[in-house]
Design a protein that fits this description.
27% strand; 12 helices; single chain; alpha+beta; 19 strands; 362 residues
Amino acid sequence: MQFIFRICLLSMTLLSPIVTAEPKLPVPEIIIPKLTEKIQHETDLVQDFQPAMAHVKVGPIYPIYYARKQREGWVDLTFSVEKDGTISNVLVTNDSGGAQFVTEAIKAINRWKYKPALEFKQPVRSNIHNQRLTFKFDRDKKIRKKVYEFYMQGLAFIASHDREGMDDIYEQLNDLNFRMYGEKDFADVYTLNYASHIDNPELYRSTLKNIDLVSILDTFPNLWADLAMEKVTLLAQEHKLAEARSLLNHIEATSSHSIEQTLLSSSKEQLDQHIKSEIDLVIAAKTNKLGIWQHHLARNHFAITHLEGELKSLDIRCDNTRRLINIGENSEWKIPEQWRNCVLYFQSEKPAQFTLVEFTNS
């Protein structure tokens, strides 16, 4: 884990964003980040299925109340594209906080238009479309001065092995109320350095698990590929193999020159072998603040066990099929292989945790 710390210190001058004092209220700009739509690769495509392609994208209206407060945020959504190219089945899977952001994001995404997916050259509804809508002011990579100063002071304390200073910065950074897009990235990257230096693998792992790679790509582009590769390892350890495989595809498409192709190929091969193995995949699950837990299936036969709390429904979204299931006594499912590339969305009204098991396909 030490290499992350060295990379950060060597790259401080390259990664430093533009910092300004608190600005006057500017005209807000809606930014759609790079890592949003699922990247398709020729190895993932089935010849008889062509994914939907967006041709009209409408940015959301910036809520006036949040604009006056100079508050930024983001909303992650998943949705279906109908045969006529319209949007349906919108589900908010995560957000930075702010009910008005969510409301405007849903309104905007429902105005998008797509060229529909084709199956055997005929239009079909497609169900795996993931999008982040970001609410930002027109301040390219600018954050509040105090966030940047805390971050730089923290790196200096790490370089000088000042444990008291490191501890103080860790507490101050993580106590901040992050209201500008990307500010939490500085706290997370510092925490990774801090955890590595004080040899706290539990803190390092929990921070890496929750780090926002979509935002990191904008705020720390020189670190993104290395952090993404570490997250691939973490996802594999947690048996989230399809998600790890998908992230490898993102890394290959986004950072082909920074990560060796041999390493990417070897990692893909190992994941594929694990997916095809006789080992059941056991995954710990916990619904988030919105009552959502999502999981990209590597196999088509799965079950839930050790449920604590109550699950309301299971929304199965695949390339060419969607099923909404009320969870009752049934806790085991086997879905047809022709559904292809399925993502599960478990929903609960209150926090719930459980274990999901993907059974071997043999």
